Amino acid sequence: MSDEANRFPPIKPAVRTRVLMVGVFLGAIVAMSLSWVFSWGVETEADRVEAAQEAAVTARREAFSSPPGSCLTWTNTDASDVKKVGCAQDHLFEVAGVVDISKDFPKNARLPNADKWRTLTEEKCGQSVRDYLDKPLDPFGKLSLGVLRPDEQQWAQGERKLHCGLQRVAPGGELQTLTGPAKEENQSNVWEPGTCLALANKTVGDPIDCAEEHSYEIVGLVNLANHFEDGYPSPEDQQKWLDTECSRIVGEYTGGAKLRDKGLLLAWDLREKESWDAGSTLVNCKVGAKLEDNSGLAAVRGSVSKEAPPPPEDKPKQGDAEQPEGERRGQDQNQEQPPGSGEGDGG
To answer: Which of 32, 133, 169, 203 has the fewest CB atoms within 10 Å, counting from its CB?
Structure first.
């Protein structure tokens, strides 16, 4: 037998079995380790839902601890996904003050109803918002008093802080986005030219696509202060000047269309003294129509802009009575407002 054979003797069966068992054991450990590694690296749907819920809770907690000057936004109707954003971004609410009502509502107090919340908003938040603005709040302007209050669960847990602030509510009740700090905002309740406002119960609703039925189309934006430099102009003086100015503007907007032939009328806003004192000097020129019985506004479809496609064939008919009120809104959307508009035939 050679020396090489003696140096490398054959492996005995028992040794071979132990080697195989060790190999199987090590393979199992490697497989288990890989399984752990892969399970750590894969996020399940449940993990994503839990992470989103935790993020929402954190964002809501941050929002409800935001100091004055903070801006908030949300997408859910109950504001359950409220979060803090920079005021230069689109937002729905700007915090103007934080009020603690725990003295009036101790730990076991019942959650206030809707009417009580409205009263508390005005009583507790009104002055803090006015102080925050450092100028009058236009009672007929686009900014209105709002409050973020504890929900039922937060109330049960003892939360009693109200976050008072400013928001914009359209005539139909829908919150509108704001951009920029409220202190820098012109409070005039106006819309950009090209905006159409929905028809709601024969009066004005929220912004809507002009292809849909609407009450008014905004055709122009005018600054009264550029013409009336000596102070607040009387409603009569506003009417007289806007009749001419809005007629000029609608002519440019429509390319010289004859509104009367289309069953349409030209209208405009007027400003109250309180609005003027708050710096609200902008007004809209707008086009709409009235029902034949003069009971309200009629539905209009399509834009009158010279850039827009032709409107549908069925045109509303114009009545003879004065334009109904309803397009100007103050803090209370149900509060009846004084007259604040005018109209002409638009050519």
So the answer is: 32
Q: Are residues 314 and 199 in the same domain?
A: yes
Per-residue pLDDT reduced to its tens digit, 197-214: 999 999 999 999 999 999
Residues 6+ apart with CB under 8 A from 220: 193, 246, 249, 250, 253, 284, 285, 286
Clarify whether residues 210 and 258 are in a common domain.
yes
Residues 213, 129 share a domain:
no
Total residue length of the chain: 347
Owning domain of residue 229: 190-344
Residue 335 and residue 207 share a domain: yes
Contact 241, 225 (CB under 8 A): no
**Contact assessment for residue 129 and residue 166, using Cβ atoms and an 8 Å cutoff:** yes
- C-alpha–C-alpha distance, residues 168 and 190, integer Å: 11
What's the number of domains the chain is made of?
Answer: 2
Whole-model pTM over 0.85: no
Nearest to 263 by CA among 325, 219, 320, 194: 320
CB atoms within 10 A of CB 244: 10
* DSSP secondary structure code for residue 122 in this structure: I
Residue 128 maps to a domain: yes
Is residue 340, in this structure, part of any structural domain at all? yes
Residue 130 domain-assigned (yes or no): yes
Alpha-carbon distance of 141 to 278, in angstroms, equals: 9
Higher pLDDT, 319 or 221: 221
Asked whether residue 309 falls in the same domain as residue 331, the answer is yes
Residue 337, number of CB atoms within 10 A of its CB:
15
For residue range 82-140, list pLDDT tens digits in order.
Answer: 999 999 999 999 999 999 999 999 989 999 999 999 999 999 999 889 899 988 999 99
Q: pLDDT tens digits, residue range 31-60?
A: 444 444 444 455 666 656 555 556 656 666
